[in-house]
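Hey,
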Amino acid sequence: MPVFVLTLALGLGVALSVRSDRGVSGLAAARQDDLVSILADLDARNAALRQGIAQLQTEDRQLSDGTGAAALKAAQQRATELGVLAGTLPVHGPGIVATVVDPQQTVSPDILVDALEELRDAGVEAMDFSGVRVVASTSIVMAPAGGVLVDGSRVQQPYRLSAIGDPQTLQSALAIPGGVDDAVATAGGGARVTVLRAADVEITSLASASDHRYARPDPSSTKDGP
C-alpha cells in the first residue's frame, strides 16, 4: 500500500508539471527546441521516478518476506566468524589439549611454532597457548629468564596448547613422523608431549584488536557491482 500511494503521488506530480508547462504559453505555441527540452526533462523525471519506485518495491519485499532480517542475520554470523578468527570472542568445541613438558628448557621456540603451524594445516579453528589466544600474528620467542614469550606474555613450562577442531586430525598432525612429537623427544632433557582428545575444549582467552599502520582496504572492494 505505501508503494502504491507514493507511485500515485509521483504520477500526479508529473501530470501537474505537464499541465503547468502547458499553462504558461501552451505546447502548441512552443518552439521545436522548447518541445525537445520539455520532453527530455519529462523523460529524466520519469526515469528517476521509476528508479525510486523500484527501490521502494525492493524494500517492501524485503520487509514482507523477511529478507532484511535474513541479511542482518547473515551479517551477524559473518561478524561472529571474523571474531573467532581474530581471537576476540571466547569459543568452545571438540579438539585436543597438548601438554609439552620441558624441565631442562631444551625445546626451542621453533618447535613450538611448528606445533602451531601443523595444527593450522590440520584445520584448527581456534587455539590457546597457556592462557594466550593464538592468532595469525602470534609470535613465540625465548624468554631471558626461562620459559618463552608468547605475544610478549611470559609462559613457563609445562606448556599447554588447547586447540579446537577435529580431534583425530589434530592429534595425528602432531604425531606425524619427524613432526612435533619427534622433535620434542629429540630435544632431550626429559622433554615430552602428551595429547588428549576432548569432546569440549573451552578457550576464553582473547586477543586484543590491533590498529593497522600500513594496510588499508582496497577501495575497489567496497564498490557495488563490477
